[in-house]
Each structure stands twice: as C-alpha cells, then as structure tokens.
Amino acid sequence: VADAVTEEVLAKVRFAKLPEVLPPIGELAEVTRAAAETARANLEVARQETVRLGAERDGLSEQRANLRLVAPVDGFISRREADPGSTVIPGQAVVEVVEPGSIWVHVRFDQQRARGLQALLPARVLLRSQGTEPLAGEVVRIEPVADAVTEEVLAKVRFAKLPEVLPPIGELAEVTVQLAPLAAAAVVPNASVQRVDGRLGVWVVEEGRLSFTPVTLGASDLDGHVQILAGLAGGERVVVYSKKALHPTSRIKVVDRILGGRP
C-alpha cells in the first residue's frame, strides 16, 4: 500500500509540472507553421535549381550535336579540307564525301562533231586503269554552256553499272557515244576533203579530168569517213590521195592501192 501511495504522489507531481515543460499550443502551432514555410521555400529553390540544371544539360547536348559531323549521303571520303585541331567557321567544308552512285565522266566533244548528241544515248567508257575492257554507260545530260576557249561541248556520262573497283576520281577515260542513225547520204574518206580558195570540197574525176566540187560536210565516224550533206549525188569518183596540190589541169593516175598502204 505504501508503494502505491508513493506512485500516486509522484504521478501528481509530474502532471503538475507538464505546463512548465510543454509550450503553449499557440506557440507550437506557430513553430510548426514556420517550419512548413521554410520547407516549402527550400522545395521551390530545389525546383528552380532543377530547371536551371535541365536547361544547362539541353544546351550542352545541343553544343555536342553541333560538333558531330553527319554526312547527307552514304559514300567515301575523297578529300579532307581541314586538319584535326584547326579552327573552322560555319559553312566551311571539313571533308569531301563522294556518293558512288553519283560518279560520272566529264566528257568534251568537238562542237563541229557534236551534232546529234543528246541525253540517254548509249556510250562506252574505256578507263585508263581498265585496259581494253570498255564499260557500258549512258549520256546523262548536255551542259547548257560550252567551252568558248576550246570550242567544245561538255557532257556528263554515267556508268550503267559501277565497276567493282571504283576508279580514282580524276582518272582519264575515252568515251564513245553511239549516235542515232542518220539518213542515207553520200560518204567519202576524210582524206579526200580539201580546202581550195577557202572552200571545202572534193576533187571529182570525170572522164579522166579533175573538177573541184564544193560540198557541205555532215557527221564523221571513227573509221575516217565523213558524210556529205550537199554537193555530191552519190556514185562519183573522188580523189583520196595525191602527192602534190591538185588543180583542174593536173595529170592523174588512178591506182588500186597506195604503195605501202592498205588496199
């Protein structure tokens, strides 16, 4: 019983001291409200810091993307325009990329022999590195501007099928274009065409006598023949070769072949 009385007395003493230990309810609510405001402020600061760091990350990602070189086509690098470590400016080329499908041959044709030249004509391309094996090709386009200095027509020829080993860029090639068939006309050897008094023509043999007939030339072929558009009707005998310059009173002798030449 004595122990129970003692515990009761101690309990009353503790209860009487509680108002002195605990702060008033109003003060406790104020402290809690201040702590909440501080926490909200810290949260807002953390959110702003997150936004700032996200913006910096996006900026760095964009800068990194600007430093990455992306080729617009698949190909191989044929030339490097800038060395590693050098400073470049926007728009400056760094490397030259060649797309294999865009490789073509830049061809020059004599303007006087370019009659009938047009796109889509078949062609044969003989590369210097390929020996005597021509490759099939096709005329892609005729340049609208000719070379006024060399008096040549410029054209682009592409391969029908790319060779297994691509030729070096800039390699020389011989190109033969198959022109469309021409209308039937008289044909003479190139050697028979002479210039007399500023006129082009041929020496025609009639009953053992010579007469100079002006002609209008057309297309020529690789076998040494030229087309006559006007001046000859066909079937005339023309002089192909003479040791000296001819005139109407020259004495001639017709032979089957030139000594040392082909029949």
Write structural notes for this entry.
This protein folds into four domains: 64 residues; 33 residues, no CATH class; 71 residues, no CATH class; 81 residues, conserved putative lor/sdh protein from methanococcus maripaludis s2 fold. Helix content is 24%, strand content 29%. The strands form four sheets. It has a five-stranded antiparallel beta sheet, with no helix packed on it. It is rod-shaped and about 165 Å long. 7% of the residues are buried. The mean pLDDT is 81.
The averaged pLDDT comes out at: 81
Give the DSSP E fraction (strand runs of 2 or more residues). Answer: 25-35%
Q: Determine and state the CATH class of the largest domain.
A: Mainly Beta
Outline type: rod-shaped
**Low-confidence parts:** none
What can be said about the biggest beta sheet? 5 strands, antiparallel
Percent of residues in helices comes to: 10-25%
Give me the Rg, rounded.
48 Å
CATH level-two architecture of the largest domain: Beta Barrel
Q: Structural class, judged by helices and strands?
A: alpha+beta
Integer count of domains: 4
Q: Secondary-structure element sequence?
A: HHEEEEEEEEEEEEE
